[in-house]
Amino acid sequence: MDLINATNMIAGYTMGMEPSGRELLVVVVKGTFHIPTKLGEAPRLHEQQVPLIMADTFTGEPGYSAPYSEIDFAPRKLKCDILLQGSAYAPQGRPIERVPVGLRVGAWQKSFAVCGKRSWDCGLTGIRATSPEPFVTQTFSYDVAFGGVDNYPEDPAMHVAFMPNPIGCGFHKHLKKEWVDGTPLPHTEALNQPVDEPDGDYASMALGPIGRGWASRLPYAGTYDQNWIDNTFPFLPADFKDEYYQAAPLDQQVPFLRGGEEVVLGNLTSQGRTGFVLPTIAVPVVFFPKKGERVEMQAQMDTLVLEPDKNLFTMTWRACLPLKKNMFEIPQVLVGKMSRGWWRARELGKTYYPSLAQLAMEKKAETEEEAE
């Protein structure tokens, strides 16, 4: 298939599939932008566009560390994922034990506290958290949010995972002193719910994507039992839900963003407070089938990823076309806007040249090729 990308961003396509077995043509466009450092400055397109992600990435070993980014080719999303990977910064660069961080995008917002290094102390009066060590910059992710696996007992049947975040830290089901004393606490916690009990039930506070098999996401994946193996494999189970494609936790999913929303970062940059407005960009997608009329649609912006430590953010748009049979029925797709001259040349079945210089170059190349 010929994908014509008329944007200054990265574009790609893939085939998706519904549980019914119907194929989908999925087109994805991702733009990378600088985070402005000056008040009132507009974001500008980054010189280095971040490539489309072809496989999930992690902060460390897959399955034993936090998801860092997900593949960009989810067939569809029902809402917009807001994600952030970054660090907490002490105000004015002065070491501090605990600092609130916050992110606001339009009317949506989320905040929590980031703490310095600390551990469980099993003293004579019970288990308590040590005071956090002061820090100037503290990276956070689900690796250092509340959660983890209690696998200290010799009997595997007694092992317990905190399934809302099984790769975190601080969680203990079995409270024997030798298993708990000196083990790390999370670096993040809710503003109004400090982590003070190893076997407590606390929200895992981070802003990145959640694991595909974690408690809040797994129910949407569907049922993979013997009946599925015998009668449905390799297709998705009938009870699979599109909500599974959302990489962000539920409280970071919002209606599709349109651009123009104000973004505010609190203590997520060395400036303390950073604000800007998301660019408003229309991303039209035109599907040209072998037979029948072309199909035009506007791609939806369904993923916003902020990386303040890298001074950049990405916006991802997606368009999904259900196919009658398979993707070979769509030989060409246009992403973005082309000139009237291009459309006229296409209608006449001719090759479009944006300038006489390019036409001359093409003719010269053809002549040289014939001479050889």
Query: Strand arrangement, largest sheet?
Result: 2-3-23-22-6-17
What is the alpha-carbon Rg in Å? 25 Å
CA-CA gap between termini: 30 Å
Q: So how many helices? A: 4
> What fraction, in percent, of the residue positions are helical?
under 10%
Secondary structure category:
mainly beta
Tell me, briefly, the overall form.
globular
Outline the fold blueprint.
Blueprint: E1 2-5, E2 10-17, E3 23-34, E4 57-58, E5 67-69, E6 80-84, E7 86-89, E8 98-105, E9 108-115, E10 120-123, E11 126-129, E12 137-140, E13 146-150, E14 160-162, E15 169-170, H1 177-180, E16 188-189, H2 226-231, E17 253-254, E18 262-266, E19 273-277, E20 284-288, E21 295-298, E22 300-307, E23 312-322, E24 332-335, H3 340-347, H4 356-371
Parallel strand pairs: 1-24, 6-22, 13-15
Antiparallel strand pairs: 2-3, 3-23, 4-5, 6-17, 7-12, 8-9, 8-18, 9-16, 10-11, 13-14, 18-19, 20-21, 20-24, 22-23
Could you list some keywords that capture this structure?
globular; 6-stranded mixed beta sheet; mainly beta; 4 helices; 5-stranded antiparallel beta sheet; about 375 residues
Description of the structure:
There is one protein chain. The chain has 372 residues and is mainly beta. It has four helices and 24 strands. It has helices at 177-180, 226-231, 340-347, 356-371, and strands spanning 2-5, 10-17, 23-34, 57-58, 67-69, 80-84, 86-89, 98-105, 108-115, 120-123, 126-129, 137-140, 146-150, 160-162, 169-170, 188-189, 253-254, 262-266, 273-277, 284-288, 295-298, 300-307, 312-322, 332-335. The strands form seven sheets. A six-stranded mixed sheet has the order 2-3-23-22-6-17, with no helix packed on it. The protein has a five-stranded antiparallel sheet with strand order 16-9-8-18-19, with no helix packed on it. A four-stranded mixed sheet has the order 1-24-20-21, with no helix packed on it. The longest helix has 16 residues, at 356-371. The radius of gyration is 25 Å and the shape is globular. The two termini are 30 Å apart.
